[in-house]
Amino acid sequence: xxxxxxxxxxxLILFFFCLASSFLPExxxxxxxxxxxxxxxxxxxxxxxxxxxxxxGKFNWRRMINxxxxxxxxxxxxxxxxxxxxxxxYFSAPDLNWRSIHLGAAIVATVSLFVHILIHASRYIKGKIxxxxxxxxxxxxxxxxFGLPYLDRWFHTVKINRSEILRGxxxxxxxxxxxxxxxxxxxxxxxxxxxxVSGASLMLDGKKIVGNAQMIAELVQSVLGGEIFEIQTEKIxxxxxxxxxxxxxxxxxxxxxxxxxxxxxxxxxDKIILIYPLWWSNLPKPVETFLRSSDLSGKKIYPIVTHGGxxxxxxxxxxxxxxxxxxxxxxxIYSSDIPASRKIIFEWLKKS
Length: 352
Ligand SMILES: Cc1cc2nc3c(=O)[nH]c(=O)nc-3n(C[C@H](O)[C@H](O)[C@H](O)COP(=O)(O)O)c2cc1C
Fold this sequence. Notes:
With 352 residues, this protein is α/β, with parallel strands linked by helices. Helices cover 52% and strands 11% of the residues.
C-alpha cells in the first residue's frame, strides 16, 4: 500500500474516532483532534502536486465539484481546528460561542469529507457500485447533519468552570430583583454524582452536576445581583431522564399542579426573572404552580427558557394565559449554549 493511501485510511479511522470521542472524556477528544490535525498536514504535504497543478488543465464539471468540495472541507476543517483550540484554551480566544461554531464546522467538514471521498472513489468504482456508494454517502451525510446535533444535545456532557463563566460586566436594572428558577436537577433523587444520572446532556462543574436553569440563574445573578429562589416540588422526579419525561407527560395529561415545598415572598420584589426548562414544548407544571400560587400583579416577569432545540415552544402563551404580571420579551437559550451565554443574557437584560 502506498504511503498516501495509508495516511488516508488512517485519517478516515481517526476522523470517526474524533467524532466518537466527543462523547468520551475531554482529553481523548483533544488527543484524537491533535492526531487528526497532524495527519491533515501530512496529507497536504503528500498531495502538494494538487496545489502546483491547481490552475492547469481543463475545468470540467467534475473538477469544479471537486474544487468546491475541497474548499468547503479545508475551510470547515480549519474552523473546526481553531474553535477546538479555543475550547481547549490553547490560545486567548475572543468571547464567541465556540461550542456552536465547533459543532457547526464539524458537521460541514463531515459532509464535505464524505463527498470528497466519493469523488475520489469514482475513479475506481463504476456503475451500480458507485450508485450504492453515493446512496451510502447521502445517508451518512443526512445522519451527520441531523444526528450530530441530536447526540450533542442529549448525550454530551458540558464541562464548565463556574467561577470563570460567571465573570463579567454588571448591570443595574433598578428595583428589587428576585430570580426564580425550576430545574430537573435539584428535584430528582440522584446524589449529585454524574454516574448516578442517565440520559440527556449534563452540565458538570468538576464532579458536581449543575442544572441548566440553575446555571442561568447564577449567570443572571452575576449580572444583576438579587436573590435566587429555587422552585422545589414535594414529589421527587426520577433520576432517569426518559422516566422524567413520562412523569411530566402525565402531569400535562392530568392537569395536576405538583405541590411545592415553599413559595418565595414575592411581595418584596418588583422584578422577577423566571427561568425554566421547556417541557413537552410547554411551561413545566411546577412553574405553573408557583405562578398560580403567587400574587404577581404589578410586577414584571422576565422569562428565560432553556431547551433542547424547541425554543420557547408554547410556554409563553401558557404563561400569559393565567398571569396578571407584565411579561417582558422572553429569551430562549439552547442547553449546550449556556456556558457561553452570559453576554447574551447581559444584552437581553439591558434592552428589556
Ligand atoms: C420532562 C422533559 C421534557 C422536555 N421537553 C422538551 C421539549 O419539548 N423541547 C425541548 O427542546 N427540550 C425539552 N426538554 C429538554 C430540556 O428543556 C432541556 O434539557 C433543559 O435545558 C433542561 O434544563 P434543566 O437541566 O434545568 O432541567 C425536556 C426535558 C425534560 C426533562
